[in-house]
Amino acid sequence: MTAAPHGSPHPTHDDARPVVRALTEEDVPLFRTFEDPGLVGRVITGVGYRTVAEGGDYRPEWTWVALREGRVVARAAWWGGKDDTEPVNLNWFDVLEDDIEAGAELLRQAPFDVEYELILPAGWSEDPRTRAAAEARMEAVTRAGKKLLVERLRYRWTPDNGLPERPGRLEFRAEPDDEVILDVLRRVHSATLDAHARHAIEESGLDTAAQEELDFFHWCPSPREWWQLAYTPQGELVGLHIPAHNPGGPCIGFIGVVPEQRGHGYAYDLLVESTHFLVEHGAEFIAGATDDGNFPMAANFAKAGYPVTEKRINFV
Length: 316
Prior knowledge:
- InterPro entries: Acyl_CoA_acyltransferase (IPR016181), GNAT_dom (IPR000182).
- This protein has seven helices and twelve strands.
- The protein is of the alpha+beta class.
- The chain has an eight-stranded mixed sheet with strand order 1-2-3-4-5-12-6-11. The chain has a four-stranded antiparallel sheet with strand order 7-8-9-10, sandwiched between helices.
- The two termini are 15 Å apart.
């Protein structure tokens, strides 16, 4: 998957820079005036834009628009958890297909340098209308200096999909020591297919990549006691699984097998254990995700009864 080339057939307005600014609580309705016939982004989840004050996820000061003659031609809403003081990512970005440069200019002027997550329907590339809308956004973020990192598969399990049977090959124990968890993460990340982990290692090194993963586990609002290591009956470490809740609800926080234990299909065992654990703790649905190119993990999700519900394309 690549972003649309800069030589797009869409006309642009490069000669006149739009007015770019953040919203205030008073002019939030301006965000909703943008007409998006492609229905890309958060709209496809059925969740409209709502600020924290309205009971939603977004903050006006993290929401920016690009205007031409008072009309919204591009808009962006950065997202963070309720306790975050800076945005975690950009997950809502829209731009008119005939004014891609306005979207790029919005991203250049906004003071947030975080990952962009483009949220799409599972079959987005097969629908010409959705594909065109997605490619306009990808071209805009590319013009603004971001690069494609990975396309990811997003899953959502419900009881209707059936609870997979536990293989029964491993033993699971809670591990209270963060240093032990951190060491396992280093071992898992030392040979990984995960694009985010590989990017973090390239940028900052293995130790930092492992620490960022640990920080994410702590960021999740689920109990620390849920983190578990997996062992063979002989006591050999296999890996770890993190059943978790993120702000959206129950999720598979992390599945990792140490390199010397790979080749036995243990990632499936970890995924099934996480699923059972979350169901036993009241989960009525479970979200999961893996890279589009991580064929072994995608096969595990399919085997465990997790259907693909969305595609997410990440730019850094």
